[in-house]
Design goal:
This protein has helices spanning about 1-10, 15-20, 30-35, 45-50, 55-65, 85-95, 95-105, 110-120. With about 120 residues, the chain is mainly alpha-helical. The termini are far apart. The longest helix is centred in the N-terminal third of the chain and has 11 residues, at about 1-10. Helices cover about 60% and strands about 0% of the residues.
């Protein structure tokens, strides 16, 4: 459904919600805003929609549909880098991501190197 909304805004300019009002529940403003934040020509539109999150979904969709020029846009989702030391600390101590990030700076570097070289040992 996300791709259908993005295609209608970027290329077809066909109002999907007006066609079928049941689709309004499938429109997720946060995700659409994130998608448009990747492009230089649409980042200000995404920023504006982030400033007015109280608008209903139909109004946000109409704003994008009527404001953004027709163009092919494609981007991959940015994924966080893998951190071998963080994964090792999580595995050894059984910590969550958040807790491991807090603790990793407290561990001495030689201890982290020892963990990653050995591949981690369970306590």
């Amino acid at each position: 459904m996300l791709s259908e909304f993005l295609n209608s805004i970027n290329q077809s300019k066909e109002n999907l919600i007006k066609k079928d009002s049941r689709l309004e529940k499938d429109y997720i403003p946060f995700v659409i805003n994130k998608c448009f934040s990747y492009f230089p020509d649409t980042i200000f539109y995404a920023n504006r929609m982030n400033q007015v999150p109280f608008l209903d979904k139909n109004m946000q969709y109409d704003f994008y549909l009527n404001s953004i020029s027709k163009r092919k846009r494609f981007s991959k989702w940015i994924k966080p880098e893998e951190n071998k030391a963080l994964d090792t600390v999580k595995e050894i101590y059984g910590y969550s991501d958040r807790h491991a990030r807090e603790v990793i700076d407290l561990l001495p570097i030689d201890k982290l190197n020892q963990f990653t070289e050995k591949g981690g040992q369970k306590r």
